[in-house]
Write a structure and sequence with these properties.
The complex is a heterodimer of chains A (112) and B (114). Chain A has 112 residues and is mostly beta strands. Chain A has one domain: Immunoglobulin-like (Sandwich), CATH 2.60.40. Chain A has no helices and 11 strands. Chain B is mainly β and 114 residues long. Helices cover 0% and strands 56% of the residues of chain B. Chain B is built from no helices and 11 strands. The mean pLDDT of chain B is 94. The chains are: A mainly beta (112), B mainly beta (114). The interface between A and B is medium-sized, with 23 and 23 residues.
Chain lengths: 112, 114
């Protein structure tokens, strides 16, 4: 069966520090991968998506970047965090031939 | 621009009540409508989904009603329980989308009192 791992679960980082959040999917090949950010009362905002290794598309301009170094690995990064980067970050995946999308458990990022 | 509009923002019901969460959309290219349930500190989990060729779908105590002409769909939770207290998101996806991108509503925080 397929599973998705996202870590860390919580993270407190100072302003100006770098960020690296990792997401891996098991039990599938060549999935679509997504990074979302969730803010209170605003739903889920799609940040990045990837349809293959090295293929990254950004939905909104921001202080963050994403990379997909391996088929089932998706990384969210920042060189210098801002206070406004605080939020709940969610990784998700979907098989090409299926309709359902599945989410990881999320990372609560607090920038102080 | 919010492509899927969800209401209410919050909802409180007594145990056994039937909370109803509503969503509306404008884009007729949408052809897949899932609902996600999210508990605090956790990622959203797929609850139930519907396509516009049916008007209703039931899974256990959860029912989606779909009105294609009105471009609206809703989630009903029968015999609600305190364990149903969570945030619920509706979403929509465009027909033929190879990316599979979902457009989410802003969520409804449901509280079920014992």
């Amino acid at each position: 069966s397929q599973t998705i791992h996202q870590w860390p679960a919580t993270l407190v980082q100072p302003v100006g520090s770098p960020l690296s959040l990792e997401c891996t999917v098991e039990g599938t090949s060549n999935p679509n991968l997504y990074w979302y950010r969730q803010a209170a009362g605003r739903g889920l905002q799609l940040l990045f998506y990837s349809v293959g290794i090295g293929q990254i598309s950004s939905e909104v301009p921001q202080n963050l970047s994403a990379s997909r170094p391996q088929d089932r690995q998706f990384i969210l990064s920042s060189k210098k965090l801002l206070l406004s980067d605080s939020g709940f970050y969610l990784c998700a995946w979907k098989d090409r031939g299926n309709t359902e999308a599945f989410f990881g458990q999320g990372t609560r990022l607090t920038v102080v | 621009q919010q492509q899927v509009k969800q209401s209410p923002q919050s909802l409180i019901v007594q145990k056994g009540g039937i909370p109803i969460i509503n969503c509306a959309y404008e884009n007729t290219a949408f052809d897949y409508f899932p609902w996600y349930q999210q508990f605090p500190g956790k990622g959203p989990a797929l609850l139930i989904a519907i396509r516009p060729d049916v008007s209703e779908k039931k899974e256990g105590r959860f029912t989606i009603s779909f009105n294609k002409s009105a471009k609206q769909f809703s989630l009903h939770i029968m015999d609600s329980q305190p364990g149903d207290s969570a945030t619920y998101f509706c979403a929509a996806r465009k027909r033929g989308s190879t990316l599979g991108r979902l457009y989410f509503g802003r969520g409804t925080q449901l509280t079920v009192w014992p």
